[in-house]
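User: Predict the complex with zinc ion.
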Amino acid sequence: MNNIEECQVVQDLLQNYSDGVLNEESKKLVENHLKTCSKCQKRLEKIKKDTEPNLQKKEIEYLKKIKRKSDLKTISIILLILFFIVFIYFLRNFIILSTITAKSFDFFDSNNLYKETRQYTGNGNEVIVWKEYYKDSKYKKVTEKYFDDKSEVLMEEYATLNEPKRVNIYPQNNSALVLTGETYSQINSKQNLTHLTEATNEFSIPNRLILSLTSLITIDAKNVGRDYYKIENPFSVKWIDKETGLIIRNYTLFDTVSFYEGTDIIKETNSYMYEFRFSKDTVTDEDVNVPDLSQYNVGYRAEEN
Ligand SMILES: [Zn+2]
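Assistant: Here is the predicted structure with zinc ion placed in the model:
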């Protein structure tokens, strides 16, 4: 080979030489040629210059890929942990609500029950109070109004379990109304009378599921002096007695409520707010017996079919 031919051959091999993939024989040939040929030396330097950044680029891309993969892994783990925390919190709420519900059902399984519902109307210190009594199939509901130091009974309602009859008394105008008809048998059902109307805290399963996800449930004892669950969601706040599972208080988040310091007595509220008291075995026969109606102007209304 003359020099020019050799240059040709070596130049063909230079890329592979630079990449380090030549066999021993070719490598020796290239190296020997390079010792004497400055033209090929320059070429090799150029090839090396061109190749180095390429290699670096590849390396960077490879590292980036690994980083992306590990980022994805980190994000997945964080998401998984978050999901797990939410799930545990959901489970905890659901168990609390289920326990409360079971306890409150236990309470209503009795033949002697009392419930008081107080509604703060936001109109000065006006409070409307409903007192419900149940004893051995007999029921009475009294509606009272408190304002300043005054109080008045607005209405008394009497019923007997499954009986097609209701007696309403209006003390203010000294009158009474006796209502009869099959509808009242249904109204005077076991559930209606012993659960003492609505607004207990018997959470249905769908309700429990929704509340578990949307509510913040904390334990507090402020203002009441005994432990209660405070169930807050974007719409309302409920206080549930921890021991009995019964509702203590219920108001919407738009209400402002303030208490006399260190007490559970409401000082001010801007809107409707409900408070509840329950007791067992405190109702007497006198509480639920229909009084002598001869002192009232009695009206009778029979339901027409
Ligand atoms: Zn050469």
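The pocket of zinc ion is lined by residues 7, 10, 33, 37, 39-40 (CB under 6 Å).
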